[in-house]
Amino acid sequence: MRISLYLLFLVLSHSLLNAQETLQKNRVIILTDIEADPDDTQSLVRLLLYANEIDIEGIVATTSCWLKNSIHPESIQKVLKAYGKVQPNLKNHSSEFPEVEELTSLVKKGLPVYGMLGVGEGKDSEGSDWIIKKLEEKDERPLWVSVWGGSNTLAQALFKIKNSKTIAEQKQLISKLRVYTISDQDDSGIWIRDTFPDLFYIVSPGDDYGSATWNGIMTVVDNIDNSEISNTWLSENIQQAHGPLGALYPDVAWGIEGDTPAFLSLIPNGLNAPEHPNWGGWGGRYEFIRPTFSGRKQGNSGVPFEVETRKIWTNAEDSYSPYLANDYGRNVKRDTEVFKGDKVTLWRWRDDFQNDFAARMDWCTQSFSEANHAPKIVLTPADPITVKSGKSFTLDAFDSSDPDGDSLSFLWFDYPEAGTSKKQLTIGGTENAHLVSITAPRVEEEVTAHIILKVTDKGTPALSSYKRIIVTIQP
To answer: Among 343, 322, 324, 373, which Cα is nearest to 280's?
Structure first.
């Protein structure tokens, strides 16, 4: 009887996970200069483990400043072949993992030329035509273009739209487009931004390629545990004894997964809000500004930098004090050290998204009952919340659960940079119980504040889900 009830619990939990995946997924086309650096292959391996939660609508082989005269779609196909071998087992964890043949059909070629040499009349490619085709589909969801290398394939698509569509058609198509490029890796990025001033564009420009926000995924930070980006951790949790897809994850050469931030925020984890880059999430946090020009003519990537003529979504800074495990008494305590910077907006979540990656790699070889799955958060009352200045309110996550039956830990914290309030909310009592009382600051005009609930299971690896509660505070 106990075995039957346990099996019923697993079936219901599995069904609940699949029900969650019926929520609207983000659409994305990947532009990758794969083979310029092993990190593109690393990022592609990770991306495929989220193919059940992100609608991958194209993977285009492109050039970049590091790979100017060749493209390598065969390297994409090699990773997809490995995915095909583990996909049947991945489906034991989610029925939404697509068939490998579907993904294989999405591999397209850009032109094997550098930057603006691939933009203009007669410069169309499989990749640029595919971007237009996907934009024109009767799908109201935005189409994200995740740029891991050069952006000239996107530039050519936009060139063709500009020269073949009416003004109204151009406006409609461009309004659906979202671009996240980690940095300018050819000279077409600034052309795109200058030519299409209304285009939603996230980028870390500037004269130092390595100083961009995306570098937070690999930054070794003093006085924190960096083990989950170590070569030892990658070997044990990703590369070895995790099936053919993990075996294809290459060793680090220049840096670990520099392209991954370009899609991390598309993963629906309760924290990420890709339409609001200033809210922060796994891919970092960005503000809508016009960056200042340093005066240098080109940076260490060899790409010339020019004055930005418009506002873009670009690097923002967080101030962050980690919560540390505590052996006696309250199980967490806040660190006394404060970290500040644009890379902090990304690495502050690093342990969580690395654990999530490791768990999904386990899905490649383990059964549903053997592997770990993220908790499901249930919040009372439902958000958003409106409260008067200086008043208190309660939030309760008592009904949250874990599909594997694991014990849960709770953590509530204010994310002041994400809201418009300059004053932090006060969390009364303890921030690690399922029930908290929160006091709004006194304000003289209406502002918003963001409370983040993080629920973590005690499985292996420990997995976290989030709930972002947006509080409107009225005078």
So the answer is: 343
| pLDDT tens by residue, the chain, 475 residues | 334 443 444 444 444 444 444 468 999 999 999 999 999 999 999 999 999 999 999 999 999 999 999 999 999 999 999 999 999 999 999 999 999 999 999 999 999 999 999 999 999 999 999 999 999 999 999 999 999 999 999 999 999 999 999 999 999 999 999 999 989 999 999 999 999 999 999 998 865 677 788 999 999 999 999 999 999 999 999 999 999 999 999 999 999 999 999 999 999 999 999 999 999 999 999 999 998 765 555 566 678 777 899 999 999 999 999 999 999 999 999 999 999 999 999 999 999 999 999 999 999 999 999 999 999 999 999 878 999 999 999 999 999 999 999 999 999 999 999 999 988 888 888 999 999 999 999 999 999 999 999 999 999 999 999 999 999 999 9
Cα–Cα distance measured from residue 266 to residue 268, given in angstroms and rounded to the nearest whole number: 6
Q: What is the DSSP letter of 149?
A: S
| Cα atoms found within 13 Å of the Cα of residue 83, Cβ hemisphere only | 26
Least Cα distance to 203 among 185, 218, 221 occurs for: 185
Q: Using CA atoms, how far apart are residues 249 and 79, in angstroms rounded to an integer? A: 9
Q: Strand, helix or coil at 364? A: coil
Determine how many CB atoms are found less than 10 A away from the CB of residue 329: 7
CA distance 466 to 411: 10
Beta carbons within 10 angstroms of residue 83's beta carbon: 26
Q: Return d(Cα 125, Cα 60) in angstroms, integer.
A: 10
Return the DSSP state at 28. Answer: E
DSSP output for 389-424: TT-EEEEE-TT-B-TT---EEEEEEE-GGGSS-SSP
What domains are defined for the chain?
Answer: 2-318 (3.90.245.10), 374-475 (2.60.40.10)
Q: What is the DSSP letter of 98?
A: P
Burial call 359-391: b when 16+ CB within 10 Å, e when fewer = bbbbbbbbebeebbbbbbbebeeeeebebeeee
| 250 DSSP 8-state letter | P
Task: Please list, residue by residue across 111-120, b when 16 or more beta carbons sit within 10 angstroms of its beta carbon and e when fewer do.
Answer: bbbbbbbbbe
Residues contacting 205, CB < 8 A, separation 6+: 183, 184, 189, 190, 291, 305, 308, 312, 314
For helices 152-164 and 126-136, angle between their N-to-C axes, nearest 10 degrees: 60
